[in-house]
Write a structure and sequence with these properties.
Distance between the termini: 55 Å
CATH class of the domain at 180-353: Alpha Beta
Number of helices: 17
Strand content: 15-25%
Number of strands: 19
CATH architecture of the domain at 180-353: 2-Layer Sandwich
Shape: globular
Helix content: 25-40%
Strand order of the largest sheet: 11-10-14-15-17-16
Radius of gyration: 26 Å
Largest sheet: 6 strands, mixed
CATH topology of the domain at 180-353: Heat Shock Protein 90
Structural class: alpha+beta
Length: about 475
Amino acid sequence: MGVHDDGTVLGVNENSVEMLTKNFIKMANNRELLNPTYYFSPEVFSINGKKIICIYIPESSQVHRFKGKIYDRVGDSDVDITNNHYLINNIYLRKNKEFTENEVLPFLRIDQLDSDTFKKARRLAAVWDDDHPWQTMNEDEILRSCGFWRQDTQSGKEGYTLAAALLFGKENTVLNYCPAYKTDAIYRNMTYERFLNPHPTDPDVRYDDRDDIRVNLIEAYLRLMNFINRNLPDKFHIEGIQRVDIRDKIFREMAANMLIHREFSHSFPAKFLIFSDRVITENWTKPAGQNPVTLDSLETHPKNPMIARVFKELGWMEELGSGRKNIKKYAPHYYSNYKISIQNDEKFVFSLTYRDEINDNVKGTDENVNIFYISENQAHKIYTLISENVNENVNENVKERLFELIKSLCNQPNQNRKDLIEQTKINRASVDRDIKILKDADIIEFIGADKTGGYYLTQKTKNALS
């Protein structure tokens, strides 16, 4: 929007940008206008001082009606084909071949789906919308509202689609229709390089924690997030006055994308691999771009858009492409020297390095890598302490550093300046400034001689955190 057909940048009225983007999103989510609805992510750019709005329209697995009519693109024209059943059938046929999730399963019955999963879906949807329509729908109505009841254009048989079985099916139902389906979650307490090149003296340990997940996609996501929470270090971040769980922000995107954007007809299992220095996801897909790929150049092409839509209703993903944005935004706060590599072939591999490679002899134990764990309740108290005692003009990056210093002293008091630099990986100049801020706020104090003493939490701080 704001660009002529010949590529000339005309721009849109700057005062109308917010209204235009909001109206577009409302239109795309209004069932009376667009049915089934779809989600988009408008982005605003400035080119030579002019505002343009870019909206990526991905290919959908559905046939959509706009104001009750179906259109097809012919050259530069939108042709109304609502009453041309032959052309509509051709569209359905093309989409059924492209998206595995659309396969019609005429013998799939409601009693083969898991009623507990439907209950969880209703509860999760209600968290984001008290009046979510699923609250008053029965199980069949939920499936039909998601577009999971179809007619096979070749056989003429009707039934629920594979997407319904994958999202809501009982375990034996999922495996009946996708025998090779599984997600393998593995944690190895060693660096990735050590795993690839083991030392002859290493014990033959295949994994330190594992979850062989063969349940439906909704239950699989919940299982996978539990696995992530127990095997990856926690870390929080302040945005304004809100505390953000960075681990959740980053790795829920990796988990959700791995579960959704995969080719379910292939026997390759999805893998979520955690090492002491990086996280790697692997799944089979239909590549939409070319290698090499970076996070910026990765094309946001939905492999199973109807399954993705249900994840969006549950609050597990946002607009198309939001996962990439969240990872770019929060990864530097999780680990400043993070690295991302992407392999975009038939096997899609996403790797995120979240910690420096650790000495092979220590194999990633928490005591040696200076990663300290605190409870969510303790983290909340520390952030409250900072918000109430530190000058409100201090920016979010400084508050994040203050949090790291306090957390380090919670776990190991009597640290000098050098110790704090080593423990928190914060540079000397910043540590010096942050120590002064914390001392002025009476949050920490120095006890002992200059050479042998160290920093401690003040009694006031201890009382606040107890």
